[in-house]
Amino acid sequence: MKKFGLIGYPLGHSFSKKYYLEKFDKEHIEGINYDLYAIEDIQEFQNLYSNDAGFYGFNVTIPHKLTVMQFINELSAEAQEINAVNCIKIQREGDNIYLKGFNTDAFGFEESLKPLLTPAHKQALVLGNGGAAKAIIYTLKKLNIPYLIISRTKENGDMTYGELKKVDLKDYQVIINCSPVGTFPHVEDAPDINYEQLSADHLLYDLIYNPVETRFLQKGKEKGALIKNGYDMLILQAEKNWEIWNNEE
């Protein structure tokens, strides 16, 4: 039995487990399992794959996307630049175990964003500067879209939300919520921006997918903005993980 799984802590509802088990069933993929491994101390991770040769790969979620890198033998180019790993491929040769780390969040975001971009989308605002923002910033650089990082404190970004109130949002046509604001059950919350300045020229992207339409997206939609949640990003990165795990290289 080939084994894959998700490590993180705490692990509640998991998109990944549901997605992969449904995929295996639908595509008649046999001899493979995907499960959740709630690991509070990252040092426990090594025991999982060292003591069980059935493991071929892992997904990584908070709080371990950075700390897991101490066990990685090789990083892909994007994982190295982002400095975070969310996908691990395990290769074995005799007693030797080789781990390669990837960041498929960047792929998922880029491929879900590109079809929505128009020539009007010249500059971006990134709301939040936590772990989720790293892959977003990497992608904006790759697509040559200038950006500002908005955070609660000046030390963590280019500008605070208070300072943003003095900025005309017509100059920033792409606004990406990388913060947890608006996540279930706090569905009435929304990032503190001037929604009155939004128009049909704007694209609002929320990494949150539960609820499907956050208050942030609803407020943008009311102003005619194009909106997108994080669900397709998750699907795309999940399929990219599967491609990586099944690549013989």
TrEMBL record:
<keyword id="KW-0057">Aromatic amino acid biosynthesis</keyword>
<dbReference type="Pfam" id="PF08501">
    <property type="entry name" value="Shikimate_dh_N"/>
</dbReference>
<protein>
    <submittedName>
        <fullName>Shikimate dehydrogenase</fullName>
        <ecNumber>1.1.1.25</ecNumber>
    </submittedName>
</protein>
<feature type="domain" description="Shikimate dehydrogenase substrate binding N-terminal">
    <location>
        <begin position="6"/>
        <end position="88"/>
    </location>
</feature>
<keyword id="KW-0028">Amino-acid biosynthesis</keyword>
<keyword id="KW-0560">Oxidoreductase</keyword>
<dbReference type="InterPro" id="IPR022893">
    <property type="entry name" value="Shikimate_DH_fam"/>
</dbReference>
<dbReference type="InterPro" id="IPR046346">
    <property type="entry name" value="Aminoacid_DH-like_N_sf"/>
</dbReference>
<dbReference type="GO" id="GO:0004764">
    <property type="term" value="F:shikimate 3-dehydrogenase (NADP+) activity"/>
</dbReference>
<dbReference type="InterPro" id="IPR013708">
    <property type="entry name" value="Shikimate_DH-bd_N"/>
</dbReference>
<dbReference type="InterPro" id="IPR036291">
    <property type="entry name" value="NAD(P)-bd_dom_sf"/>
</dbReference>
<comment type="pathway">
    <text>Metabolic intermediate biosynthesis; chorismate biosynthesis; chorismate from D-erythrose 4-phosphate and phosphoenolpyruvate: step 4/7.</text>
</comment>
